[in-house]
Write a structure and sequence with these properties.
- This protein is α/β, with parallel strands linked by helices.
- It folds into three domains: 14-154, no CATH class; 177-293, 3-Layer(aba) Sandwich (Rossmann fold), CATH 3.40.50.720; 309-482 and 514-543 and 583-663, NAD(P)-binding Rossmann-like Domain (Rossmann fold), CATH 3.40.50.
- Helix content is 49%, strand content 14%.
- The protein contains 23 helices and 22 strands.
- Strands 10-9-8-11-12-13-18-22-21 form a nine-stranded mixed sheet, with helices on both faces. A seven-stranded mixed sheet has the order 3-4-2-1-5-6-7.
- Helix 4 packs antiparallel against helix 5, helix 11 runs parallel beside helix 12 and helix 11 packs across helix 18.
- The longest helix is centred in the N-terminal third of the chain and has 36 residues, at 2-37.
- It is elongated and about 115 Å long.
- The two termini are 65 Å apart.
Length: 669
């Protein structure tokens, strides 16, 4: 090992010395050119004076270059910073050179400031030129002449140990065909991405063209790569390269614009990718990379970040209990709360595996700095809940526990009412009894004019929560649409079906849904919980609804297949309780915008406790029968907006939500 290190050190010194000799010869040539061959009135110097000027100039140049680390730089990888540093050092060398000769030389030996700067500038030009030639030849030159020039410009032989592994890799890769790509976006990110690919001999990709809308760039080239306009980027033109993949390098592009380009370039038959941070990472903890489109990006809606310092400050130092903390939404709430430095985080769930997983994840991430407790308790067990609340005395409760699967709850109506309705009643009562300051319930768009048991139970839960307004606990609810990646989401089902070769199944080709990501949903809950006063129901502006058929087709294409040709899409018929569209707002009620333009307050006139208790008594009697049909009938009596799905679906074509989805589809086409 010592012999190898000594050899490497010796080789490094050898290379530096050769480069310094090369620079010295260049400087000598410039001095002879400017002081002997091309003299002027201020440069008629005797031989002795020329020698003095050469030695003084060389001393200044090399001293500053050594100070600036110019000879420590590996010039085959030299970038902008390396060349800027060299320019700065040579400028300081020129100033020092002129100042030194003014102080220590007689007038007969001096030359003018212009002559000094000319010598330094010409020398800098030659020195940078040989380094650039070396870089270019190192990357692209494989001929015998290139080898000779490399030796001349930097004195490095291909037999040197530093070059041998890299050259072998390059030679091996050079015989492997590369994938030709077009980069959408000739801005800073796109150019950086193309340079990274071009300068990496091991890259499997070759940038062949940029596509941009900037008229100043169109028709020109960047580092030899032509810039095409969108009109020029036709299938025929792209195939002339030929382009195999199209990569989006526009990180700040608006969602609707991304959708427009996605539909446009999808018609070329090329595979579409993105160069950006993964959606699970940020600028602080992530790194840009070329990747497939994420499912969330198929929605082509602008993600909303609800977090702010006011929200962080509200949860900081508080004891926060999250029911259903092991579920998809609950676990993300745990992650978001953990960042806000709570005094204590209590994860309450009946399913121990999910709760254990998020507990271990947080312990690994935060260690002893985060006080995490896990309680395995069913919200249906009121006495056990009281014990938990008495032990921890939480300041804030986020209620995410619920049965959410629509078809399953249609066939298990009694269980849906027990868990969702009376479980919520239990945790609301415990919160009130033990002095919780704020209680936020997570609701769903299916609670609006519900057509199924799950939606009806969640609507009744909203009524229960809002009826407690005016007590010492601040009660609120937050309503949003479908969550991508959550348990029971359609996305995992589509993924499994595509992986199995199809077919992809959906209940009805007309069906539409509102979507949001798990982080968005969690942040909305936290933001609305922090701003909630009392008895308020919060709703997110989720943009335009999405056709599930369109989502399925896009997922198939992103997987490298063609819908209906490689993988078929078939209808299975609407499931029990399912309707063609979901609503976020009860339109007859008042809607108020909050400080956050994406969050609204739906002012529903709350029922008093006596009215709620009367409704709950009806359900209690129905549950005692253990008859799902009787419980469903009772649920329809207590939730007056509960309709049969057939009633809603028969007039779906006239619904605002369906027309909005149609307009979105028309715009895309």
């Amino acid at each position: 090992m010592n012999l190898r290190e000594n050899r490497q050190t010796e080789q490094s010194r050898h290379h530096k010395l050769k480069l310094m000799v090369c620079d010295a010869l260049l400087l000598l040539f410039v001095d002879i050119l400017m002081l002997v061959i091309y003299p002027s009135e201020d440069a008629h110097l005797a031989d002795q004076a020329v020698v003095i000027q050469v030695l003084l100039g060389a001393a200044c140049v090399f001293i500053w270059r050594i100070i600036g680390g110019v000879y420590r730089q590996i010039w085959r990888y030299g970038g902008t910073m390396a060349y800027m540093q060299m320019i700065l050092m040579d400028f300081l060398a020129g100033v020092t050179y002129y100042a030194a000769q003014s102080v220590i030389l007689y007038n007969v030996y001096k030359i003018s400031f212009v002559r000094v700067m000319s010598i330094c500038a010409l020398n800098l030009l030659f020195a940078m030129t040989i380094r650039l030639i070396y870089q270019y030849l190192y990357e692209y030159g494989e001929s015998r002449a290139a080898v000779v020039l490399r030796r001349l410009t930097a004195g490095i032989r291909l037999t040197d140990f530093e070059d041998r592994p890299l050259r072998k890799e390059t030679d091996a890769k050079s015989i492997t065909p590369k994938i030709n790509i077009a980069v959408v976006g000739a801005g800073r990110v796109g150019v950086m991405f193309a340079e990274e690919l071009a300068n990496n001999p091991r890259s499997a990709y070759r940038p062949c063209c940029f596509i941009d809308i900037d008229k100043e760039k169109i028709g020109r080239s960047i580092n030899g790569v032509p810039v095409l306009s969108e009109d020029e980027a036709t299938q025929e033109r792209l195939m002339s390269f030929p382009i195999q993949e199209i990569v989006f390098a526009l990180p700040k592009m608006q969602a609707e614009r991304k959708k427009e380009l996605y539909d446009l370039y999808q018609q070329t038959g090329c595979k579409l990718k993105v160069y950006d941070y993964p959606l699970t990472q940020t600028v602080e903890n992530g790194k840009r990379s070329m990747r497939e489109f994420d499912i969330e990006e198929l929605l082509f809606r602008q993600p909303v970040d609800f977090t702010n310092e006011r929200t962080n400050a509200y949860y900081r130092g508080k004891r926060v209990l999250i029911s259903g903390g092991g579920g998809s939404i609950g676990s993300e709430l745990c992650r978001q709360i953990a960042k806000m430095q709570p005094e204590q985080l209590i994860i309450l769930d009946v399913y121990e595996n999910g709760a254990y997983d998020i507990q271990q994840e947080l312990r690994i991430a935060y260690g002893v700095t985060l006080d995490v407790r896990v309680e395995i308790v069913s919200i249906c067990d009121g006495a056990a809940l009281d014990c938990v609340f008495e032990r921890y005395r939480p300041d804030i409760v986020l209620h995410a526990a619920a049965h959410k699967h629509v078809p399953l709850m249609e066939h298990n109506c009694c269980e849906a009412v027990k868990n969702n309705v009376f479980g919520t009643l239990n945790i609301v009562s415990s919160s009130e009894r033990f002095g919780v300051k704020k209680f936020t319930m997570i609701s769903t768009d299916k609670a609006v004019n519900p057509t199924n048991v799950m939606g009806a139970t969640k609507r009744l839960c909203e009524m229960i929560v809002l009826s407690r307004a005016g007590s010492r606990t601040n009660f609120s609810a937050t309503r949003f649409g479908n969550v991508l990646g959550s348990n029971g989401s359609v996305i995992p089902l589509f993924k499994r079906q595509i992986a199995a070769g199809g077919p992809v199944t959906l209940t009805d080709r007309r069906i539409i849904r509102y979507f949001m990501t798990i982080p968005e949903a969690s942040q909305l809950v936290l933001e609305s919980g922090a701003m909630a006063r009392d008895g308020e129901l919060y709703v997110l502006d989720m943009g335009k609804p999405v056709r599930i058929l369109e989502l399925a087709e896009s997922m198939i294409r992103l997987s490298g297949y063609e819908p209906y040709r490689d993988i078929n899409i078939i209808e299975t018929g609407l499931r029990p309780g399912e309707k063609l569209y979901e609503e976020l707002l009860i339109k007859t009620e008042e809607l108020t915008r909050t400080d956050n333009s994406m969050i609204f307050i739906e002012r529903d006139k709350p029922l008093d406790r006596e009215e709620i208790n009367a409704k709950l008594d009806i359900l209690r009697k129905a549950i005692l029968t253990q008859n799902d049909e009787k419980v469903r009938s009772a649920l329809k009596r207590v939730v007056d907006t509960y309709h049969a799905p057939e009633e809603v679906n028969s007039s779906a074509v006239d619904a605002d939500e369906m027309q909005l989805a149609d307009s979105r589809e028309d715009c895309a086409v």
